[in-house]
Amino acid sequence: MTPSNESELTQTVLQSLEGTHDARFLQVMQSLITHLHAFIRDVDLKPDEWMQGIEFLTAVGQTCTDKRQEFILLSDTLGASMMVVILDQLRAAAGKRGRAANEATEATELTEATHATVQGPFYWEGAPDLPLGADVAQGARGEPTFYSGRVTDTHGQPLEGALLDIWSGDGEGVYDMQVEGAAMQARGRIRTDHEGRYWFWSIRPSFYPIPVDGPVGHMLEAMGRHPNRPGHIHMMVSAPGHVPVTTHLFVAGSPYIESDAVFGVRPRLIVDFESHPPSRAPDGRPIEAPYWSAHYDFRLEPQHA
Amino acid sequence: MTPSNESELTQTVLQSLEGTHDARFLQVMQSLITHLHAFIRDVDLKPDEWMQGIEFLTAVGQTCTDKRQEFILLSDTLGASMMVVILDQLRAAAGKRGRAANEATEATELTEATHATVQGPFYWEGAPDLPLGADVAQGARGEPTFYSGRVTDTHGQPLEGALLDIWSGDGEGVYDMQVEGAAMQARGRIRTDHEGRYWFWSIRPSFYPIPVDGPVGHMLEAMGRHPNRPGHIHMMVSAPGHVPVTTHLFVAGSPYIESDAVFGVRPRLIVDFESHPPSRAPDGRPIEAPYWSAHYDFRLEPQHA
Known about the structure:
2 copies of one chain form a homodimer.
Chain A: H1 6-15, H2 23-43, H3 47-63, H4 70-77, H5 80-94, H6 99-102, H7 106-112, E1 144-153, E2 163-167, E3 187-191, E4 197-203, E5 208-209, H8 215-222, E6 228-229, E7 232-238, E8 245-251, E9 270-271, E10 274-276, E11 279-280, E12 286-287, E13 291-295, E14 298-300
Parallel strand pairs in A: 1-13, 1-14, 8-9
Antiparallel strand pairs in A: 1-4, 2-3, 2-7, 5-6, 7-8, 10-13, 11-12
């Protein structure tokens, strides 16, 4: 079939996929082509605009190195990464029952498990296993903060030995990985006690900008958007037989909490950081400077058979 | 606003564009984000599939050099380039009257002007000006072909001095630009006579594959698609006061005429190449080998004020 107009063209391109063996790849590409063509028609994209798009995507690809992934940054800043995160958690909640059949109960399920958010580019495998109550900061600059809470399943049953894999930037928004040759800081793995409780020290994380010296930075500028993420600490929380969750705790009141450049903030992940004068901390430790405390209970979805 | 589910996420991302100054950029990005999110939701895109997409796009960008544009190849093989070409010609036909108001008459308008198709990567500016009847082949391998016809406006009025900027590969599907250090071949600029007529010699072009050694080649393979374009000769036809058209003439019966890898074939651009025994050619020249002839009349849309 040879197309004589734009509707026939879309049909012709879709028909060209008939030889695709992988059913899932076929489904993804059919949807992608349908939306790509619809986008071009909806905005009546002009040849010079198309060429600007080609040049932009090329520049994004050529900005990628083994230390920088500009396409992930693009996906993040367009909300695509966060959409994938949300859908992945919905799918886990729906389990084997199938998503369509479960539409009605989705909202309920999601209120039960801790909300997920983006992993981001600063996860560093091999953080040290630390005892309950340890100082995860490991020398990172920043105001000391006492973190505590519980890990339970979605029915409220405490999960003993659940793993919290924790990482954050320092009190000025800089991650250890961003400093050439730096050692690990503000990273650690902590396990809950027999009542599902955890507690540890670290710093109060600060907002920071994503890299803006590449094409994605120029895009944000053209959109009149700032490049900042509000202060947050990352956690990957897992326990055998449960769906792990990759998430952040966001500092309530942090600048940019209402306008995260990568759309990672979700209302249930915003945590009040309470300020304290120098005193005896909740774990009994005497603290000679002002400090903060943050409390958060994590809930994990049981894995469906 | 911070999103708690996937619908709110799309709204949040769209709201983040409120500071965009350029109204057209805003319109394009709103549509792009809406379709991007809808695509991800429609197929319920999984994190590992998202990552495959990121890696694919990165590889496409990194395959681009100053001599190769893999993103254009991707756009071509998904039919996006051809969609832009078709819309551009519809817009020119609709002129200043506005596209929406003109929907009803579009079909008629398009049958009048010669259909456009993709420019492709092998246009080389500065082809020689040649007299009517010249051999454009300039030594390119292939079976000799006599091309003739007229250039008129869409009312049938002949256009004197209309320019045909002509290029093609040779009879084996190879363009001069693809041979390191080669001189120009099978390229030339011809002008119509006072009755709008043109005639020239060149070769009968062959089908050929687009480059398949990059990520786009792997994508075509996964789709079970071949990478070939049917035989065609390129023309950019222009005349003062008229909308220029960039198009091809396709060789009727060429392999892949029904399945052009870049979807450039349109029914009205397929031309019968008539075979002739050695004889006196239509321009009076005695030809000692078998040859072909192809006849095509081009029509240009008058430019709207």
